[in-house]
Structure formats: structure tokens, C-alpha cells
Amino acid sequence: MAWRIGPGCYHFAMATPPPAPAAANGAAAPAPLRHYLYASLAVGAVALLGAPLLGQFDLANIAMLFPLAVLFAAIRLGRGPAVLAAFLSVALFDFFFVHPHFTLAVSDLQYLLTFAVLLAVALTTAELVARLRRERDSAEARAEETAEARLAVESERLRNTLLASLSHDLRTPLTALAGLAESLPLAGPPLPPAQAELAEAIRAEALRTHALARDLLDLARLQSETPRLALDWLTVDELVGSALQARAHALREHVLTLALPADLPLLHADAALMERVMCNLIDNAIAHTPAGGRITLSARTGAANAPAEDDAPSPCSAAPQPPGPAHDRPGRCGFEGRGADEGTALPAGSISISVCDDGCGLPPGREQAIFERFVRAPHPHPPSAGTTVTGDGGTGLGLAIVRAIVEAHGGSVAARNRAGGGACFTLCLPLPPQPELPPPEGGETEHGR
Amino acid sequence: MKSAHAPAPVVLLLEDDAGIRRFVRAALESEGCSVCEAAALERGRIELASRRPDLLVLDLGLPDGDGMELLVELRTWSGMPVLVLSARSDEADKVAALDAGADDYLAKPFGVGELLARVRALLRRAMRPPQATARTAFGDIEVDLEQRTVTRAGAAVHLTPIEYRLLGLLVAAAGRVVTQRQLLAGAWGPNHVEHAHYLRVYMAGLRRKLEPDPRLPAHILTEPGVGYRLVAEPLSGARTQASAPPAG
After folding, report:
1. Domain boundaries, chain B
2. Which of A36, A261, B30, B121 could serve as a FRET partner for A343 with CA atoms 20 to 30 Å apart?
């Protein structure tokens, strides 16, 4: 007998948007100093270009050259260098071109208007170009984000299609294999016992292969960024009842105890996946509990004071309390970093469901490792001679799937050894606000004699 | 199905995988059925029209189209029972097939025992005269739809009008799965098909009144993510999932 342990972990991290480029939010990074130098050189170059024209052109026309330098600075170097170029243009124009030359003094006050217009045109050009640059950068960033999002959606769709095709293509031949082996006795006279045994072995192996393929594909599906959950309102009674009904045959040699309070709230979960969780936990309990052993299914809510079925507090009690006012929100269960037996209270707004057995228990210290995939550790307490234990015919993925499903629902799962022997697996699920119940009917009818 | 007087029921098996056709045919013939086969949608249409079978066993994934297309077409002119075989694992596909008119479904891989149990239930219902369906018994419960009475071990059971409507829907489809949507529409009306929690509350009430142990239902069974099924005889782990080996 072995518990399944192994490496690997599951991530259901929420998709975080990539950091937006700085330009996208309008907070452009400051231009490097050399850009200011380039801007100054551009203005100087314009001044040099205009020098030979002095005396041949009106000063107003020469002044029109300077906005070109500002435009260049705004387009290529950024807003800061463009503003510098604007002021420098006015200064150089005054210094080199306006009488008296080589001084900032102005002999004719009309040039003040030229300076003002030149400065206004230059600054407006700088601002307009800078705005255009920001908008262009923002549009580029948005386009990049959209492309990334489209790529993510497309790859998720491709992944789901691939998984569905694989699932379909594996199921069909395995169904035929199992069915043909099962129908061998129908094809002719009854098979001799040895052949019937072989036919049954073929059928069982085909089903085992299917179970392995199904579990691997389901894990891949559950590990996608956005596992698809068909959320529905469920009662714990119904969830447990349907799992027990599905495992009725396997449970016939065990004593079953149900400790489900009558007033449990509704769960909001994927019915098929949660039934899978319960079936896998029941399978695990059956596989590690001798015939005649007791398997107990129990549930309790964080708000209720329902006594635990067992001699130790539920592992859900180890869930850390949400800080501050968030304590009132639907329970966020977790066991991170704490032992299963620490603490006493289940978080308010959460529910725990436990499957406990009085079998051989878990290898000490490996209580969380058993939720990993595939690796099996030798059991420290092999069953004594003469003890009948059901075969360990699982895929080694059952508990990993349990954890993946529960975590996809925002819950957590933990295992621990019971003080009196045996193991307890407890899952903790957050409870959303309960839906409005159907309006009461107007009394009972006479449908009966 | 095996009767010295009645002709053998004809089953049309529409399935593209030769291996599955072979063992399903062997299983159905062992039950006394006459089986005709088709591997593609077009051939299936021809066989349906010419043979007029008593039961259609329909695979949804066919090489020349989706079996759902044929199912929708068929329901425009025939009420013959249809058992869907599906290699799709999604419960939504099962619900879609049932809501489109399928009478029952089997998810692959399925066992011969499950297949024959479903086929027997469907043929029994198809061949039973309508008036015989007025009275149904399961466990120690007797339901008389004509007299509108429900008794448990001879004693009257009082049901609310909605509980009675739900029971009536399950009894009318005894042995077959009824989807949540069908139950909600039948009991509360088409405006309440999204109110699954109504169903949970009333099903719990029905089980308290009708099941020997409501926590371990023997007759009103849940098909998770799909709906409910009323079975006269308790099943012993007969669902597909139960036949698979332990997963953990």
C-alpha cells in the first residue's frame, strides 16, 4: 500500500495584466541631457542658416525659421528639449538678428511682438507634438495589449480544443476495448474460468488506462488559467448522497457513518467536479481502510457550532483568518504554512466537508505531500497478515485532482492523521451569500388518501 | 424483451467506431434485439426512414456531422426512444442532448450491464400502453397519477403541489434522467429555469417524504450537473463513473 506523493504544484493565479508602458499613461520619462544639447545645436544651426540671409530677407521671415528647430526637437527629442529650443530661439533671434546685434537689448519695441509670437508658436508646436507623441505611444501600447489578450484567448481555445479532441479520441478505442472484453462471453459458449478472468483483466486494464488518460487531461484542463466551472447551487446532502451512490458497490464492505447537520447552507459549485472530489476522497478512504473499517463523512459551517465528528479539530480550522473587515466576506479558506491541527475555528462564511477513515493513516510529515502527483512512498504501517485491504488500483492523480478542483473553487484541502488511527481529509469551501428561497406554497394538498 | 409472442425489437445503432458497434451489437442481440447498424449520419437517416426502429442508439461524434443534428431532425417527426452515446465528458453536452429530445445518455466508456439496463428501460416504456403508466411503484411507494394519490407502505403521503408536480415529471420518465431545466420548467414554469436552488430545496423535501434514508437516496437519484433520475430498483453503483477503477 502506498500513499501517493510527488512533486508539482498547481497555480490558479489570477491573470495579471502586463505593466503598461510609461508612455501609455501620459507620464513620459524625462528626456536625457543630450537631447537638450541636440535641441540647442538645432537652434544654433538655424541661427547659422539665417545669418547669410540677414539684410536680404525681412527679420519676420528669418524668425519663421526658428519654429523648424522647435518642431524637430518636439518630434525627435521630447517636450522638454522642445521648450528649451523655443526659448533659445527667441534669445538667439534677439542676440544675432535684432538691432543692436550681439546684445539682448531691443531698439525697436515692435520686435517684442515678434518675440512673443515666435515664443507662442514654438511652445504651441512643442505641446501639440508632445501630445501627439503621447497618443501614439498610448495607442501602440493598447494595440500591444489587445494583441496579447487575443493571443491568450486563442491559445486557451486551442488548448481546450486539443484536450477535448484527445479526450474524445482516447475514450472511443478504450470503450471498444473494454466492451469487447466484457462481451466475449456473449459471443459464444460460456468461457472457461481462466479465460473469463483474462477477459476481465483486459477490461479492467482498459478502464484503468481510460481513468489515467481522463485524470491527466482533467488536470491539464483544471490547470489552465481559467478553468471552466459550471457553477450551480448544491446541497451537501445531495453531493454526498450522489457520491455514495456512485461508490455504493465499492463501499459494501465498510461501515459508513454520516454526520451531516440538517441545516447546512447551499454550496455554489460545479456539481460534476465536486462529486468527483467526493468520489476520489471516498476511493482513497476505501483503498486504505481494511474491510470492515469505518468511513465517516461529515460537514460543518464556520458559523455553526456543530461538533466535529472526530477527536481533533477540523483541518479547516487551520485556515488563516482574513485580516480586518474582510473577515465578513465569504470565507476564503486556506492552510498555508500551518499544521492541520492548529487553531480551533472554521472561518466564518465557509464550510468544511471531511472524509475520515480508521485505516492505516498517512506517513507522518507527508500530510500535504500526498496531494502531489504520481510519486508513491512506501507506507510505514503495512497491513498485518490476514487483513484484507482493497486494491490500490488508482492512477495516482486522484488527490491531485481533488486539490485542483477545490482550489479552482477558491477553497483548500488538507489531510491529517487522527489521534485514534486513520486519516482525515477535509476540504474547505467559501460560502457565497445564500440565494432567495422559493416562496412558500399555500399549504399541503390532498395528494394522498 | 425476450418474448415468445412479440417480434424482436429493432434497434438502430448509429456509431462510427467498428469496435463499439461490434460489442454493442453482441450485447443487444444477447437481449433478443434485432440490430441494424450505420456508421455515418447520412446512412443513419436512410436506415431510420426505411427500418423505423423501436430504439435509436446514437453516437454524437460522427464523421459526417454531429449526432445532435439528427436528433433534432428526428424529433420533428418521431418520438422513438433515443439513447445517446457520448465520448464528450462535459455535462453541458449531456444536458444539451437531453433537452434536444434524447431519452437517456451513456458516457463512454460504458459497460454492457449499463447499456442493457438503459435499453431495457427505454424499450419497456416505448412498448407499454400509455394507460399502464398511470400507476407506478418504487420501493414501498405507490404513485397513482390518475387518482393523484401517493402512498407509502399503504399510508397516504402528503405532498405539496410543487412536490407532486416534480414527482409526476420523474414518474413519467421513470428510469430516465430528467434535466434540471425540464424539472424547473415543468414545476415552476419557463421563467424559473435558472432557479436551480428551488429544485434543491424541493428535492430534499421529496426525499424526506419518499426515501427510506434521504441521505442515501435509493430511488430519486442525482445526476450531478445534469438532473435527476427516478429508479424503481436501487442501483448498485451502476453509473459510468462507478465502473471505473478508483482514481485516487
Report:
1. 10-127, 130-230
2. A261
